[in-house]
Structure formats: C-alpha cells, structure tokens
Design brief:
single chain, 454 residues, 41% helix, five-stranded parallel beta sheet, alpha/beta, 3 domains, Rossmann fold, globular
Amino acid sequence: MIPRLASPSVCVIDDEEQDYGPILDALMTLGLGCVHVRGRNGDRLPPQPFEALRLVFTDLHLSGHVGKDAASHTANVVRKVVSAANGPVLIVIWSKYAGDPAGDVGLPPEDQPTEADLFKAELLSAEPRFKARLVFAEMAKPKLPDRPAAEEWIRALQLEIENILKQIGAVEVLWAWETLARDAGIEVSETITKLAEAAGDDDMPLGEKLKPVLKLLTQQQGGPDISTATAPRHLLGVFSQIGLHVLEAASSSSSLDAHGGWLAEKLDDTTRRKHRSSKLNAVLLTSPATPAFAAFMPGTVYDVVDPQAFSAATGFSTEKLQRDCFDADPDKSPAFADFKARTKPVVLEITPACDFHQGHRRCAALLAGLEYPIDLQKRASSKDSCKTTPAFENRDVAPPVDVGFVFCGRYRFTALLDQPPAWLRPRFRFRDILTTDIRNWYSGQASRVGYLSF
C-alpha cells in the first residue's frame, strides 16, 4: 500500500535548518506537499529516484563542501533524487553563493564560472539525459544578517515561488494536465465511496461497503467474461470511463485556460517541418503492444515473420496481398517490383472493443495489409477495397524512418484466441480512434450490396 503513495512532486535539498525550515513552511502554506533531503555525507538517499518530481529546490553547498567538490556532491545528490527518465523538472538553485566565482585558481575571478554554472555543468556531464528534461532557475537566499523576520520571509518566498512558476508556461501546461488527471482519479474514488456509503449499512466498515459496489461495476462491465484473470481489466475499464467524463467536464474551466493565448499562436512552416507530423502521429495514434494483457488485443499490429506459414494458415500469399494493395496493374507497371521488394505484410486485430471487453468474441478478427516506406505512399492502392493510414515514425529502427500502412478488405481471417501463432509478432497498437476508423471502413466493405439480376 505505502509504495502506491510514494509520488512526491516537490523536493527541498538543503542541510541547514535555518534555511530549509522557512521554505518548507512556505510550500506548506501554498498547499505543496514535498519531501526533504538533507544531502549530507553519509545521509541515506532514496533507493530509487522519485519519478513524479516536478519541482526541486536545492542548495549548492551541502555538508560543508565548496568549489568543485560542492558542485560534484550536490550534482550526485540530485541524480539520486531526480529520475532522468521523466520530466520536465524545474530545478531551482536556492543558494547564498549562486553568483559567486567557483574558485578556480587557474582563472581570474571574472573568467570563472559561477557556483551555479559549475553545478549545472557537473550535473549535465554526469547525466546527459537531464539536458532534455531539466529547466533551471535561480532564487535568492539572503545571508543570515540580511534576512527579514520569519513570517515576512515566508510571504516573500511564497511570492517568489509563484513568480518562478509563472515564467515557465509550457512546463506549467504539462503540470496542469497532470493535476487534472490526478484530480480525475480522486473524483473517481469519491464517486465510488459515495455509492458505497449510500447503499451500505451504517455500522459496516468502509472496506466492506466498497466491495459489493466494486463487484457490481466489474461484473456489469465484464458480463459473462468475469474471471479472476479478467476482473481487474474490466474494473479498469469502468474507472477509465468515469475518469474521462471528469476530465471532459473539467476542460471548460481548467488551469489550462490561462495559456490559451500562446497555445493558439500559429507556428511558422520551419517549426512545423522540424516537428514532423509523422513523429507526432506516432505519439497520437499509436501505443505500445500489450501481449501480456491479452493475446489478441484490438488495435494490435503484428509483423508477419514467416510468409510461408502465413500463406499456409490463411490461404493467400503475401504476393497476392501486395498485388491487391498496389495502385496500378502489377503486370503492366514497372514500379511493382520495387513496391513488392520494399513492403512487408502486417496484420491488424479489428474486433469491436465491446466484444473484447465483455468476452463475447469467439476468435480473433484479423485484417491483413502492408507496411511501406513513406516515399511509396502514392503507390499504395486508393481503391475502395483498401484503406491507408497517416504517416508514422517507425521508432523500432535506428535511425527512425517514416512509414505508412495500407489494409485490404478482401483479406480478413480469424485465429484462435489462446495464443498468437509463431509467424505473428506483436509490435505496437493503433489507438482506439484509428482502430475504430479502420474497423468502420471494413464494416462498410463487408456489408456492401452486390448482386446480379435477370
């Protein structure tokens, strides 16, 4: 239970009580829960970096270190506290000596890096991934004789913290989203608790009141598919639906509203080209494959790793698939040879989501198609029997390349649910909106009327 609550978003790294006491009070007054790390020699540090940290206040001189030793020691503490795999994280350098020369005797004072610069250089050198994930800022820490009274200083710290946060609008947008998602989770819990409170006996413990509500939601979602293995998935489906409703209701009056102005500013063509649409499509329209969740989960794209086994199992060859997905007569076009050599067969699971989640399907519904390099996009068939996708960045190869997919409505087949055949390898998933688009197109193909009359 306790590890599920281990997600601090703010951290203060400081070893002097007269310094960290006021800023902890200021953060508490602002309603910002935080974790405090002293960072002294021999002090215990987290066994793993905190993955949810978003704001860190750090002193530069911990345990009496100075100069390069101080920068190296503080950088090591920050590396142990902040995860390099997550972000963005704002590192606020809160030190009395941030602007002082670093003490390099080989350089005149005016040419020396500052204490803050030396710390940043040490940190980014020790962990290069931080370069793309950290935002640095500085906040003044007056020396003891220059500090105002405690209450006045706490108020000043609150204002300074708020001003720093206002200056990082793009980062604040992501923080606002995380807050909305967390609030949605909290509201889901509150909703379920209210349902349990209304239906349960007043003398019954809360845990016992919650159980029948959670059972009912799970069983209504899962229907006849309920089992020990599938019940958690069905409950997550219910929670996701409630949470999405909460997020949609909050979108009209959220903290994101303050950023509408700069978000709506038009991008120039150079910036648009730099952030290629194919790279964005890979984020917006695909997600990782989850074979452990279900052998054939709707939207999963499979590579055909053994074309001969594929042909034996389905009754059609990959060459026949390539001919039908080519936007010309293969026997008359010299471009078909290149198309055939550079495309590879894939398979997409297209079972309706409701049948999958409620356990109504009796076999996997698979649709065959091709993956092609994006320069062959004009060669992919545009006939009604074929469906092409937007361009994606294929991140499975180095360097990444842009690819597209085309599926042919004539090549649908089924497979047993228990285990994917060895000639199929799951690679990634199309998100629900794209899977639904392809499924609806296929449904139209499958239901079209065609007959002869005399």
